[in-house]
Amino acid sequence: MAAGRSIGVASQLCFDAALIVNWLERTRSMLDAIAARYCVPLPVFHVGVCGPTKESRLRRIADLCEVSSFFLGSAFDRIDTDNNGRVSREMLLDAAPFLHADESTLCALFDLHADCDGTLPRYAVAEVLADLGDDLAHSSPHSSPLGMRSPGTGKAHAVSGPSTAVQVRRQSKELTGEADKLVLPEEVVLALAAYAEREGLEEDVV
C-alpha cells in the first residue's frame, strides 16, 4: 500500500459468524487507515464461506485446514434447544459460555433484535452474532494474532485470520453419530450481510 498499490484480502474458511465479523472489522479498520494515509483504494475482502456441503466432508476439510468445526452446525442450532425455530432470552443467556459473551451484553442485543413475540428468529440470531463480533473488535486492542499456536501441534501459524483465533473453541463431539446432513452457510452469510448493511459498505468491498 505504501507503494501505491491497492490490495485484496482473502480469509480461510470459518464457521463462527461472530468470529469472522470480529476479524473482518479489526482488519478492515487497520487497513482502511493505512489506505487513507497513502491515498490508495480501500482493500477488498474475500471471506471464505463454504457452499452447501455434507457435514462429514466439511469436518474433514476443517481438520485439514486446522479450523474449529464447533459452529459447523450453526450457533442457532445449538442455542435453539427446543428446536422450534425461535430463540428465547433464556436460551440466549444459556449460550453465553460458548458465545464468549457476558449476560448483560446478550440481554441488550436480545432487546435490540427480538421480534414482537419476544423471540429471535434465525436471521435475528445472525444479527446478534454480527454485533458480538463487531463489539469485540472495538473493545479489544487491534493486535495481530500472529504466532498463535495450531491445536495439538505447538507450531505457530504463518498468517493471521479468523481460523488462527478459533483454536480455543475445540471441536465438539456432540454431533457424533448423527446423520450426514447437508450444511448450509446461511448463518455466516446473514451475519456478514448484517455487518455490511450496518457499516454501509459498497457492494464489492466484502
Structure notes:
The chain has 206 residues and is mainly alpha-helical. The protein has helices at 17-38, 55-65, 75-79, 89-94, 96-99, 103-113, 122-139, 162-165, 186-199; strands at 8-13, 44-48, 53-54, 182-183. Strands 1-2 form a two-stranded parallel sheet. Strands 3-4 form a two-stranded antiparallel sheet. The longest helix is centred in the first third of the chain and has 22 residues, at 17-38. The protein is globular and about 55 Å long. Residues 141-177 have low confidence and may be disordered.
Produce the secondary structure layout.
Layout: E1 8-13, H1 17-38, E2 44-48, E3 53-54, H2 55-65, H3 75-79, H4 89-94, H5 96-99, H6 103-113, H7 122-139, H8 162-165, E4 182-183, H9 186-199
Parallel strand pairs: 1-2
Antiparallel strand pairs: 3-4
Poorly predicted spans? 141-177
For the terminal residues, how far apart are their CA atoms?
A: 19 Å
| Count of alpha/pi helices | 9
Instruction: Note the beta-strand portion.
Output: 5-15%
Percentage of residues in helical conformation = 40-55%
Brief description of this entry?
The protein has helices spanning 17-38, 55-65, 75-79, 89-94, 96-99, 103-113, 122-139, 162-165, 186-199, and strands at residues 8-13, 44-48, 53-54, 182-183. The protein is mostly helical and 206 residues long.
